[in-house]
Amino acid sequence: MAGKLLPMADDAPEQPQGGRTRRDFLLAGVRTGSVVAAGGLLTILAKAPAAAGTVWQIDPDKCTQCGLCATNCVLQPSAVKCVHTYAMCGYCKLCFGLLKDKRTGNTLSVENSRCPTDAIKRVFVEDPYYEMHIEENLCIGCGICVKGCTRFGNGSMYLQIRHDRCVNCNECGIARACPAGAISRVSVKTPYKLKTRHA
Amino acid sequence: MPLPTPGPWDRDRRRTLALAALAAVAGAAPAAHAQEQKKQPPPEFSEGYTPPMPSQPQPRMPWLTTLDVALLAAALGLAAWIGLHRRSRREMRLLGLFSVLYFGFIRQGCLCPVGSIQNVALAALGSGYALPFAAGALFLLPLLAALFFGRVFCGAVCPLGAVQDLALLWPRRVPAWLDNALGVLPYAVLGIGVLYAAAGTAFVVCQFDPFVGFFRFSGGWLAISLGAGLLMLGTVVGRPYCRWLCPYSVLLRWTAALTRWGVRITPKDCIQCHRCADACPFGAISPATLEAPAEPRAVARRRLGRVLAVAPLIVVAGALLGRLGAPAVARYDRVVSLAERVYQEETGRVKGQTNASEAFRKQATPTGELYRQALVKRRWYGGATTLFGAWCGIVVAGKLIFLTLRRRRPDYEADQAACLSCARCYTSCPIEQERLTGLRSPLRDAPEQP
């Protein structure tokens, strides 16, 4: 059977005469059938609207900020980051995402910050308003600020899987661990579930 | 298919529904109040400041995925050419190294054909999931290659296989009985992978992928220790994952058994020196059988008859065991385990809340709806695990039947279904050495080996 692909020595034994047995014939039929079926399937697949595939995303309305996003991603730090829809933000002077409930001393000193990695930067807009900007390189996706903002503030901070980092595992580690079932596959064409102005 | 007994929540369903309704009414008013209170209207900015929208970095470009598919196809072609035409172990190893580097470390192992079984299962048997083109292509290409060239995918393209192949330093043979017994496992892994994927519960094959943690330099302790254990075992035992765990190996076996051109060890005649069988670390070379059958035909026939009589019993036993295991299997599903937990909390059997039940209570889904969903899932699992048990029974029975059959084989030849196309056997063959060097092998004149 291996005949033609093999570089044969000059004195190679002759191939069995009489050609193909019934077994060979049947096998060839099965192979041709499989190739045709596979080809057809691939053509159908390529034309399907979902052909481009899916990515994982968090539904911010389901998220409970349990903190598992920070630990269960295959990436360290996690591909989940805090995202801020500024249009929803109340620009609170004492930002509930940024600051702890109980504060000591100078309000804005780092000891009063919720964020374990100090990833929230205050960017001056105009007196007395500051934009709460998330440094994604520092953010670990723990959701502590999100919890604060959701409980006391406008809920303008929320967690999203950032697709410039996410490696799009076939089985997302955090989706599996998420207690709220908030992570699901979404179309690659609409890869984010951003909160908009006061939904 | 018998209907499963209803979950414990079913008996108390009316009461729990009432409880849920009560909770909804009680909870609604203060919640609405709190909602009203916490809103801080966005300020009016004086200097024309408009709040920016959050950035949306896009996922990897789709054409790169197409490139991966093309690279896989090219690597398969190359592996077939090296394995069947060049017959070079060295080049095969280089290709394997490339696969480990690109498909493993650079692409970080996802998507892969092994895992794509689950995408196909979810798309075909589950609901609400359309199979992406890349997953379909990755699933089909290695099988098509196996149909024509044997398991060249295993030889050097699969990063999971290649990394084990590189780790195989001191190969030892595994006793045939152990190899045969463990050889049933991939069928079970395939079954359980398809089961959980079709249910939409999890992709367990990916979850317990032993080597992807190395490719990503991360992973849970379970995955890492499984991978490290398999690699350590793999230094002496050839490719333990490929032979005794990989679910894709089942499909590759089936297609490779039909292969058009497969590994043919000797380029000319076989002198039955047994060297190739010694060189194969995977026990994939069937030795030549002696001229006279070792036992009378009647004895063999009687044994086959006995096995055939037992086979249906094994299948039925498997189905029953599967049915019995259904509740435990179903508990791996998020909805089922959550419903059980919530039920226990509602009836006061446990105190406190888990993360999941707390999250559930924050969402406004009524408990009855959760129980209903869980019941549907449980019922599905009742049928599916029965089928899974029957499948395992069929595999065990099939293996027994296969083992009782004796085929006559004049020469040593690669068992196409089991051969991983690693190209180790070629260099061990004295006739291949004759072809390469043009010198007559001294083994031709040596007395016959035992």
How would you describe this structure to a colleague?
- The complex is a heterodimer of chains A (199) and B (450).
- Chain A has a domain of 134 residues.
- Chain A is 23% helix and 17% strand.
- The longest helix of chain A is centred in the N-terminal third of the chain and has 26 residues.
- Chain A is elongated and about 90 Å long.
- With 450 residues, chain B is mainly α.
- Chain B has two domains: 246 residues, no CATH class; 110 residues, no CATH class.
- In chain B, 64% of the residues lie in helices and 1% in strands.
- Chain B has a two-stranded antiparallel ribbon with strand order 1-2.
- In chain B, helix 4 packs across helix 8.
- In chain B, 42% of the residues are buried.
- The N terminus of chain B is likely disordered.
Average pLDDT across residues of chain B?
Answer: 87
Uncertain stretches of 5 or more adjacent residues of chain A: 1-17
User: Main interface pair?
Assistant: A-B, 77 and 77 residues
Strand content of chain B: under 5%
Strand content of chain A: 15-25%
The dominant shape of chain A is elongated
**Strand count of chain A:** 6
The gyration radius over C-alpha positions of chain B equals: 28 Å
Query: How many separate helices of chain A?
Result: 4
Q: How far from one another are the termini of chain B?
A: 54 Å
**Fraction of residues of chain B in helices?**
55-70%
Q: In terms of quaternary structure, what is this?
A: heterodimer
Number of strands of chain B: 2
